[in-house]
């Protein structure tokens, strides 16, 4: 079961992302739940260019993309699905608090850039 927490954007013109808690206690930050694949690629480019993220593994299926990357020594996944949009979540259940903080940091970074 997932619970939902919304982050409050200080600017009403910037869309809010929301956070889902998974059974294991991990946070999944939904960046945009109603977007096309072009937004996924724009977000990936932003992460690569502005945060120097290198994508380690890219799995591209028909309706889902999962691109793994390391951010501050945490393995995270940039996820896209045609039905659910773009989100970021940790790969592993260990060190939940630190990984959740890394996910939220990425989400807030993207939120400030109007994703």
What can you see in these coordinates?
This protein is α+β, with helices and mostly antiparallel strands and 115 residues long. The protein has a single domain (3-112), classed as Bacterial toxin RNase RnlA/LsoA, N repeated domain (Double Stranded RNA Binding Domain), CATH 3.30.160.690. The chain is 27% helix and 37% strand. The protein has two helices and seven strands, in the order βββαββββα. It has helices at 37-50, 96-112, and strands at residues 3-6, 18-21, 27-32, 55-60, 64-71, 74-81, 85-90. It has a seven-stranded antiparallel β-sheet with strand order 1-2-3-7-6-5-4, covered by helices on one side.
CATH superfamily: Bacterial toxin RNase RnlA/LsoA, N repeated domain
Low-confidence stretches: 1-15
Strand order of the largest sheet: 1-2-3-7-6-5-4
Oligomer: single chain
Key terms:
115 residues; alpha+beta; 7 strands; disordered N terminus; seven-stranded antiparallel sheet; Double Stranded RNA Binding Domain; globular
Summarize the SSE layout with pairings:
Elements lengths: L2 E4 L11 E4 L5 E6 L4 H14 L4 E6 L3 E8 L2 E8 L3 E6 L5 H17 L3
Antiparallel strand pairs: 1-2, 2-3, 3-7, 4-5, 5-6, 6-7
Short précis:
By secondary structure, the chain is α+β, with helices and mostly antiparallel strands. The protein contains 2 helices and 7 strands.
């Amino acid at each position: 079961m997932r619970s939902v927490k919304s982050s409050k954007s200080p600017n009403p013109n910037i869309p809010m992302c929301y956070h889902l808690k998974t059974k294991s206690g991990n946070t999944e930050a939904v960046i945009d739940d109603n977007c096309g694949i072009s937004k996924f690629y724009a977000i990936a480019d932003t992460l690569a260019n502005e945060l120097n993220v290198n994508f380690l593994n890219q799995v591209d299926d028909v309706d889902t993309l999962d691109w793994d990357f390391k951010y501050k020594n945490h393995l995270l996944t940039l996820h896209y699905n045609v039905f659910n949009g773009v989100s970021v979540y940790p790969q592993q259940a260990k060190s939940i608090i630190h990984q959740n903080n890394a996910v939220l940091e990425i989400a807030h970074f993207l939120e400030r850039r109007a994703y």
